[in-house]
Automatic annotation (TrEMBL):
Organism field: Stigmatella ashevillensis
The entry's keywords: Cell membrane, Membrane, Transmembrane, Transmembrane helix
Signal sequence range: none
Pfam short name (any one): Polysacc_synt_3
Subcellular location: Cell membrane
Mode of membrane association: Multi-pass membrane protein
Protein name: Lipopolysaccharide biosynthesis protein
Membrane-spanning segments: 21-42, 54-76, 88-107, 127-144, 165-191, 237-254, 302-325, 331-350, 362-385, 391-413, 434-452, 464-484
Coiled coil residues, start to end: none
Length: 505
């Protein structure tokens, strides 16, 4: 029996994420433009309705796949014949789309009553079509990334996100308002669905479906799928509770407060995906002892980005909200400052490690704990503290869930020869230096606002003038962060060197 080929060197595995990172970096601007444009062309009531519609759609989008699509990251790097896994995944997702459309038709009326927003019913048909076809196209990028075809996946991300941004923004700019946008996104989802069947199966071999392999795939996916069935409603629970407690206009403020720049998805998701493939390669090659190094490398690089990003958003929250959404959304600043905690909590790619090592039951347990914690927190929080209670309840539940995942990571990365503990898997040095530098730079932004508060109040109206305070705060933060990093012995220009694109399929 021939030896398994050795995987790519550990020094370059994060470089495989480079094309995905660059693609998402480009499309992040397009994605960011969607809520910013809509905030200006829609009324507060319509803006709140827009968020409520997509809250329903995204809940179904992430729950109904039941972990089957994500299981491709586990099976494809290990498979002799990949076509059955791809074919049965796409058929499963097509069926899930049909279920989603039915749920939209059945549940939208009671949800509209819960939200005290009967206008939701005006968009029932396009919402059902959009959700169904988007679910059917879920495997598109995952099918490419899990086969190591990161460049092709990056191209698909570019094309898909560009079309999606155009479908959501252009109709509203042309005066078609929310109704025109919903029709356009339904057409976009149909294009994605057709592209999935045209692209995903290319180059794979084997039958389209295998009953035995499907049972194995479902057995692997079931714990993770059950976890997502708990996690997504739990993560979105504060949106539903707040939407049921306030008018659509106030809900629009809350959603702006919970707005996050797509930096987490931009870096965390491709890094986690490539890390999962890397761990599968190491396991296949009998070099699992290198897994902890791969995890620490990924977490360390994310720390140098996510910690300063969260610190800057917290410190410059008024400038950020005013510049991107306008002064009418400034009441959302306190909610926004709590919500940026989610960026800092994304440093450790724990769920990717646990899925790659088959610890999906640990993910389910984490989400179960979060769900159990969320219910009393939200009931008390929103009842007594309103919108602030909603976002604080969400943040506390996230901390509990991350801690539950973290305690399982050492076992997932251990080998029979070496048992690891928490102190072995966390990149303490990188966390300490990034945290110190971020806090110092954030303090400088607070000092700047205190010194120039009167000047900021006299800034004229207009996009350029609204961006000026944010730009000044950003330059000060970057200079401060880089200077403190340099003083701790870190060369900032080398921090993300492992994420640059390299020769890979």
């Amino acid at each position: 029996m021939s030896a398994s080929p050795a995987p790519a060197s550990s020094g370059s595995f994060l470089g495989k994420a480079g094309p995905l990172v660059l693609a998402r970096l480009f499309t992040a601007g397009l994605t960011l433009s969607i809520p910013l444009v809509l905030a200006r062309v829609l009324s507060l009531e319509e803006y709140g309705t827009y968020y409520q519609l997509f809250l329903i759609s995204t809940t179904l989008y992430y729950v109904l796949p039941f972990g089957v699509v994500q299981s491709l990251y586990y099976f494809l790097p290990r498979a002799e014949h990949r076509r059955p896994y791809l074919g049965q995944t796409m058929l499963f997702m097509s069926l899930a789309g049909v279920v989603a459309a039915g749920l939209v038709f059945v549940l939208l009326e009671p949800v509209a009553g819960l939200f005290s927003n009967p206008r939701l019913l005006d968009y029932r048909l396009p919402l059902a079509v959009y959700t169904a076809l988007l679910l059917g196209s879920f495997p598109l990028e995952v099918s490419l990334t899990s086969q190591g075809r990161t460049r092709q996946s990056a191209v698909v991300y570019l094309g898909s996100d560009t079309l999606r941004a155009a479908a959501m923004v252009v109709p509203c700019l042309l005066g078609a308002s929310l109704g025109g946008m919903m029709v356009a996104v339904a057409v976009f989802a149909g294009v994605r669905y057709l592209a999935t069947w045209a692209v995903a199966l290319r180059g794979s071999t084997g039958p389209l479906v295998s009953g035995r392999l499907m049972r194995e795939q479902l057995a692997y996916a079931a714990p993770f799928g059950a976890a997502m069935a708990l996690s997504i409603p739990q993560q979105n629970a504060h949106f539903y509770v707040v939407a049921s407690a306030v008018a659509p206009a106030l809900y629009a403020l809350y959603r702006v407060g919970c707005f996050q720049l797509p930096v987490v998805d931009l870096l965390y998701t491709p890094t986690s995906e490539v890390l999962m493939v890397r761990l599968g390669e190491l396991e296949k090659a009998g070099r699992l002892e290198e897994a902890v190094g791969a995890f620490r490398e990924a977490a360390g690089k994310l720390a140098f980005v996510f910690l300063p990003f969260a610190a800057f958003l917290f410190a410059a929250a008024p400038e950020f909200i005013s510049a991107l959404f306008g002064a009418k959304f400034l009441p959302a600043v306190p909610v926004f400052r709590v919500s940026v905690l989610g960026v800092a909590l994304s440093i450790l790619p724990m769920d990717g490690v646990l899925r790659a090592r088959g610890y999906t039951r640990a993910i389910f347990l984490s989400y179960l704990v979060k769900a159990l914690v969320t219910v009393p927190l939200l009931w008390l929080g929103v009842r007594y503290f309103g919108m602030m209670g909603g976002v604080v309840s969400w943040a506390l539940a996230e901390v509990v869930g991350k801690a539950t995942l973290l305690v399982r990571v050492p076992a997932a990365l251990s080998t029979p020869e070496r048992k690891l503990g928490l102190r072995d898997v966390i990149p303490w040095t990188e966390l300490g230096k990034a945290g110190l530098s971020a806090v110092a730079a954030g303090a400088a932004v607070f000092a700047l606002r205190f010194g120039l508060l009167d000047a900021w109040g006299r800034v004229p109206e207009g996009f350029f003038w609204r961006m000026l305070p944010l730009a000044i705060a950003g330059v000060l933060f970057v200079i401060g962060y880089m200077a403190v990093l340099h003083a701790t012995g870190i060369r900032p220009l080398r921090v993300l060197a492992g994420l640059r694109p390299r020769g890979t399929g």
